[in-house]
Task: inverse folding
């Protein structure tokens, strides 16, 4: 904002003095303002995030090193799959231990949920399910959903 006001002041001073550099200053001010605006847009973090969480417990005798899991969204009335997010978590989970797997994305999980409908029963009519697709163990062996 300060940068923009200084540039506008230089242009207005040049206009009052009938300076031959007036058009050059106007052009530079527009260019500089556009660059600053572009830089600000690139560095702004996303305003909303959607979190996907799953709590898993290792019931095997081998340590887990990696889990592929899907977060599935279903229509509550029909049971039809609306959308699916696929994740791979690289986690060391010892036998008998429990961990929470968490991912955050900027895009909404389904078209039914939008950032504009947050806190307005956005999940009504929607069921959610976590599906474990693959588990990789520390010894190199794997379990895979059939």
Result:
């Amino acid at each position: 904002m300060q940068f923009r006001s200084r540039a506008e002041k230089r242009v207005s001073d040049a206009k009052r003095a009938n300076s031959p550099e007036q058009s050059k200053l106007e052009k530079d001010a527009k260019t500089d303002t556009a660059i600053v605006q572009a830089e600000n847009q690139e560095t702004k973090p996303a305003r909303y995030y959607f979190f996907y969480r799953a709590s898993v417990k290792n019931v095997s005798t081998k340590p887990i090193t990696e889990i592929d899991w899907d977060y599935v969204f279903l229509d509550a009335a029909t049971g039809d799959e609306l959308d699916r997010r696929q994740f791979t978590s690289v986690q060391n989970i010892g036998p008998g231990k429990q961990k929470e797997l968490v991912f955050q994305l900027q895009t909404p999980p389904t078209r039914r949920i939008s950032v504009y409908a947050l806190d307005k029963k956005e999940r009504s009519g929607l069921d959610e399910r976590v599906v474990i697709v693959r588990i990789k163990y520390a010894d190199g062996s794997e379990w895979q959903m059939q």
Confidence is low (pLDDT under 50) at residues 114-118.
